[in-house]
Each structure stands twice: as structure tokens, then as C-alpha cells.
Design brief:
The protein has eleven helices and twelve strands. The chain has 348 residues and is α+β, with helices and mostly antiparallel strands. It starts with a strand and ends in a 10-residue tail after the last helix.
């Protein structure tokens, strides 16, 4: 089923405002969720609305979001997310990092006491559009065992990087430090499908293709000890250094057990401090063309740059509609009814 992005935006914003969000943060979070849907990342899209509603109603997420500045020194800033919507805190953090980078060449902002921030690429994409290199990372609830371990100790702890590339979309990477995001395990569980053996361990530390055993066990890090090390450093910087929760202290967003305590780091690096921005963008664009034109492996028709597939999906979604499954639209219809929002339900 295909739905116009603006219609998804209107519904998401209306639900968030009815829940207690301010109109400004409702629009911001709705954009983040729908952007994920348009780019083919439904695990971070409008399906998250039901989780947000549940957490607010259980009293473990506060609305409207109150982000406070704890400190600001030189090129750094420190924020408290007020246990509100993570997208609001992360967006403010990246915008502060960009402003700091304009003054100092680089800006770094840490956030404590927030929640799931959605697609990290939305924040680094923002920096790239401002002519900067953007970096964003955050920790998450324990779901991944350290290399050699058999129990979850750290989260999938994602990170994203983006930079401008001439007239085209930014070169952008957004990845978890586990082989696969846990949302894909949940999706396999919902659809009754097996998962690849390289994705996860069961509770005994053995590889498994059973999504339920994987949910009870732990995810595997990318590239073994390298992914484990990367996840650990993200946890120490975004979580411990920010004064937020870290390791097994971070709570899942998917169950209303209490405030998640997610920590975030954003950084913006002013490219113009090192090289004229137009020169940099031209060189990156030329380099990207060389990569695309390089010799391809057998059976491969095209080489993509990081983020290019998602950008093309977004273009298709905006012209033809966002692909949504029946279950997702039924959930949105239930929210429309729950809050007595006078909008036409989705046809399912």
C-alpha cells in the first residue's frame, strides 16, 4: 500500500500533539518518523508512534519535551533531554554543534537523559546541508554481547556520518554496531521467518536462526571484536561521559520499564576551516564518480555510494507514495480513533 508522505506527516503530528507534545516538537518528530518511512526504514518510522503513546501513558516519557542547557564552554555544549522525545533533544544538539562549528571550526554537544532518537542520519544530513561534516552517535539498551561473551552487555549503539557531495545528496552512512539492528529481529519474529545464523546468539551463546531465541539471547557485533570495540567507545562517550546511563543500565524503549536514559553525541566539523567548501564538494563529487565508474564484480550492475540507495527510495516515495504494510496502517487508524482525531482513516 502506498501513502502520500504529507498524509503520514499530518497523522503523526496530530497524534503527538494530542498526546501532549507542543506543535513545534510534534512537527519535528513527525518529520523524523516519516523521513525514515520514505527512505525504507520502517523500523524507525511512524510505527514508533504506538511506543511513544504507551510510554507517555505509563508515565515514563515526559511531554512536552524540556531540553535544558547544562553547560556551554568554547566549542562544546552539554544538554539534558528531560526524558522527553529523543528527536527533539538530538536535533537541538546538532543545531548547537553546527552553530559552534561556525564560530570555532568544530562543535561537539553531548546529551544525557533522553530517549530513542530515531534515524541518526537525519542529524548528520542536517550538518551536511550546512556545508559541514556531521557525526552522531548514541547508546541503547543492552542487546549485544561483547566478543567472547554470551549475555547482552551493550546496545546496538549506532553512529552516522555525512558530508556534502557537490550537487548530489550527501555521502551518508547510518549503521548499528551490531550485524543487524534489533528491529529486523522483531520483524522476523512478527512474520514467523528465520534469521541468518550470523545475526545473533541464543541464551547459551550459540548461533541461532530462531528470532525468539535471538531476542532472548544477544546480537553479534559487526566484524567481531572491531564492532564490539566501537560499540564500547560509543557507550563510554555518548552514555558515560554525558552523565547518562550506559551498559546494562540503559532501558529498552520497547517496554515501559522506566526512563531509558539514552545518551547522545553530535559533532559538526566546518569544512571551510580546512578547504573552500565548493572545492571540497567538487573533489568529493569527482571521487564519487570514480568509485561508481570503477570495475564491477561479476553480476553487479551498479556501485552505490553510502546513503545513495536510501536517497533514491526517498525520491520514489515522494513522487509515488510511501510503501506501508497493512499492520502499520491499522495501528495508525487505532491511534486516530483513540485520540478522536477527525481525519479520514487509512484504507486497509
Amino acid at each position: 500500500m502506498k501513502v502520500a508522505p504529507q498524509r503520514l506527516m499530518d497523522v503523526a503530528e496530530a497524534v503527538l500533539v494530542a498526546l501532549g507534545a507542543s506543535p513545534e516538537e510534534g512537527a519535528l518528530v513527525a518529520r523524523s518518523l516519516v523521513w525514515a518511512d520514505t527512505r525504507g526504514i520502517p523500523t524507525h518510522g511512524t510505527n514508533f508512534l504506538t511506543k511513544i503513546v504507551e510510554r507517555v501513558e505509563k508515565g515514563v516519557l515526559g511531554l512536552p519535551t524540556q531540553v535544558k542547557i547544562i553547560s556551554a564552554h568554547g566549542a562544546t555544549a552539554h544538554l539534558d533531554g528531560g526524558n522527553g522525545l529523543g528527536q527533539v533533544a538530538a536535533d537541538k544538539a546538532m543545531r548547537m554543534s553546527i552553530d559552534l562549528a561556525r564560530k570555532h571550526g568544530v562543535g561537539v554537544t553531548l546529551v544525557r537523559n533522553t530517549n530513542h532518537i530515531g534515524v541518526l542520519a537525519s542529524y548528520t544530513h542536517l550538518a551536511a546541508r550546512e556545508g559541514m561534516l556531521g557525526l552522531c552517535m548514541c547508546n541503547a539498551a543492552a542487546s549485544m554481547a561483547p566478543t567472547g561473551g554470551a549475555e547482552p552487555f551493550m546496545g546496538t549503539n549506532p553512529l552516522s556520518l555525512a558530508l556534502p557531495c557537490g550537487d548530489g545528496p550527501p555521502i551518508l552512512v547510518d549503521m548499528s554496531t551490531s550485524v543487524v539492528a534489533r528491529g529486523k529481529i522483531r520483524k522476523a519474529l512478527e512474520t514467523g521467518r528465520e534469521i541468518p545464523a550470523a545475526w545473533a546468539l541464543d541464551e547459551s551463546g550459540r548461533g541461532t536462526t530462531d528470532p525468539q531465541a535471538a531476542m532472548n539471547g544477544s546480537l553479534l557485533p559487526i566484524a567481531g571484536p572491531k564492532g564490539y570495540a566501537l560499540a564500547l567507545f560509543i557507550d563510554l562517550i555518548a552514555g558515560l561521559l554525558s552523565g547518562s546511563k550506559y551498559g546494562r543500565e540503559v532501558l529498552t524503549f520497547h517496554k515501559p520499564l522506566g526512563p531509558t536514559g539514552v545518551g547522545v553525541m553530535t559533532m559538526a566539523l566546518d569544512i571551510g576551516s580546512f578547504m573552500a567548501l565548493d572545492q571540497f564538494a567538487r573533489l568529493v563529487s569527482d571521487h564519487a564518480d570514480w568509485i561508481r565508474g570503477s570495475r564491477k564484480a561479476e553480476g553487479v550492475e551498479r556501485i552505490y555510494l553510502p546513503g545513495e540507495i536510501e536517497f533514491e527510495r526517498e525520491e520514489i516515495s515522494r513522487s509515488e507514495g510511501v510503501e506501508m504494510d497493512r499492520h502499520a496502517l491499522q495501528s495508525l487508524n487505532r491511534l486516530l480513533g483513540k485520540f478522536n482525531i477527525r481525519m479520514t482513516p487509512f484504507e486497509v
